[in-house]
Amino acid sequence: MSASHVFASPLPDVELPETPLTEYTFRKASAYGDRVAMIDGASGRSFTFDELIDQIERLSGGLQARGFGPGSTLGLMAPNMPEYAVVFHAVAMAGGTVTTINPTYGADEVRFQLNDAGATLLVTVPMFAETAKAAMADSPAEELVVIGEDSYDGLFGERASQVPVDVHESIVVLPYSSGTTGLPKGVMLSHYNLVSNLSQSDGMLPYEDGEVALAVLPFFHIYGMQVLMNGLLAAGVTIVTMPRFEMEAGLSLIQEHGVTQFFAVPPIVLGLAKSPVVDQYDVSTIRKIFSGAAPLGGDLAQEAADRLGCDVVQGYGMTELSPISHATVGSDFKSGSNGVTAPNTFCRVVDDEGNDLGVDGEGELWIKGPQVMKGYLNNDEATEATIDSEGWLHTGDVARIDADGHMFIVDRVKELIKYNGFQVPPAELEALIVTHPAVADVAVIGVPDVGAGELPKAFVVLKPGEEASAEDIQSFVAEHVASYKHIRLVEFTDEIPKSASGKILRRFLRDQTKA
User: Fold this and answer.
1) By the 8 A CB rule, do 254 and 271 touch?
2) Which of 138-152, 202-216, 296-310 is most confident?
3) Separation of alpha carbons 183 and 426, rounded Å
4) Residue 384 to residue 456: CA distance in whole angstroms
């Protein structure tokens, strides 16, 4: 490998503090203690930075008093709300691990994560309590705590300080990702991983004093967790939370609170560019819209920017990268670009034969830096398939890097479907659908869609003499998985194309769909 084929960041290296996550996140908070840190958009409840830190320290004290600490894991299954940050950082301060769970999951999906992560305590909200109770059966979770009820209030104790941790080895958060393929896997992220990425992002995503951000992207997802919750708190930005995005409610909050920063995914940007309702609200305070989680087309970004009179830029990341490896700095954007490589980060672009490519070459993007995960929990095989012996993380995305250092995602190597920014693993849906009594074989692919990015589509082979409709298949899937994994399209076929080794040849199905 020629050294000239390793792309270094065009930005200067930054200091990477060896500090626990919560200590780093609130390192400047004493300077703006009475500033509002978080506002619950739905109810108007708010916490200043001083109040938020007090809650975190008292909840951490309560957890520590009951023996929760290093080696302990708590499952957090809640929508965006100020208490999310309280629970998250109380666990971090206690030296434990929080595994963040999608609150729209069904009981089977929650149970899988509780078991895999070894979570002994599950925290949720009243809306999801029944699902949580059902999921705890046959899991290590022994106690359910519901925010807003006595079980939550009873967790608080005396104010406590940070439990000493090895920042390089202590896993502070365990989000679940499908990686480049397959079933969800626990991504082991250390204090050092997350603090490093916050430090790397600091200069790439600058904020002025007194800014306000709308947080609609879920905190259980690495983008919402790090770029929004932790990144914004670390910068002293006031966060207005929304449990889920609804256009009129979101626009109303932007107008009411004078939102200056809006973090989005492409379907939201599409709505901002096209929806007539936008004209009914004053959104003039917005300075920047930052899109992530899925590629955003240059034309759509420009259309939204022209309409709202602000910059619309994007970045790139993965759960396995804590999550940012690339972002647009300031207004230095190019149409369709994911921005430039983060400080302290190196990239390679590699072809199918493993050869490094130079400027404008198209190949798989490999990344090395302090933000690369420790590995997948209980899955050495998947870890070794993703991170090679030299520490390069193989992203599964096809990219090119131009002469100015801007990176563009041009295709996908990996099989994952990206629906509204969420990862939908075909293998998980195929394993489910094939259990339907009428199904003999199945393959799932993503079909391009302007609004959602991709729509999950199932090609189904029925057993001889059996009958099933598209609606039957869709309903069957909907009973078992979160809504974003639902099958949107069904096509019945006589045979699933496969290689000699039995691997599904998805490209033939994609070509068949185009035809």
Assistant:
1) no
2) 138-152
3) 9
4) 28
Short-list 290, 513, 329, CA closest to 417: 513
Residues in the chain: 515
Distance in angstroms (rounded) separating the CA atoms of residues 475 and 183:
21
Can you say whether residue 78 is alpha, beta or left, with left for phi > 0 and alpha for psi between -120 and 50 degrees? beta
Pairing of strands 238-241, 212-215: parallel
Q: pLDDT for 46-88, tens place per residue?
A: 999 999 999 999 999 999 999 999 999 999 999 999 999 999 9
The CATH code of domain 417-514 reads: 3.30.300.30
Residue whose structure tokens are 């929080």: 98
DSSP 316-361: EE-GGGSSEEEE--TT---TT---EEPTT-EEEEE-TTS-B--TT-
Is residue 16 within 8 Å of 370, Cβ to Cβ?
yes
**pLDDT score for 35:** 96
pLDDT digits (tens, 9 = 90+) for 1-39: 444 589 999 999 999 999 999 999 999 999 998 999 999
- For 406, which DSSP code? B
Helix (H) or strand (E) holding 171: strand 171-173
Residue of 33, 42, 39 lying closest to 238 (CA atoms): 39
pTM of the model: 0.85
Segments in 21-70 forming alpha helices (H): 21-25, 49-65
Q: How far is CA 352 from the centre of its chain?
A: 28
| Helix, strand, coil share (%) of the chain residues, nearest 5 | 30, 25, 40
Structure confidence by residue, pLDDT tens digits, 310-366 = 988 888 999 999 999 999 897 788 888 899 999 999 999 998 888 999 999 988 999
Residue 261 is inside which H or E element, if any? strand 261-264
Spatial separation of the C-alpha atoms in residues 107 and 481, rounded to whole Å: 9
Q: Give 498's DSSP letter.
A: B
In three-state secondary structure terms, 69 is coil
What is each CA distance from 33 to 52, 57, 258, 382, in whole angstroms?
9, 15, 21, 44
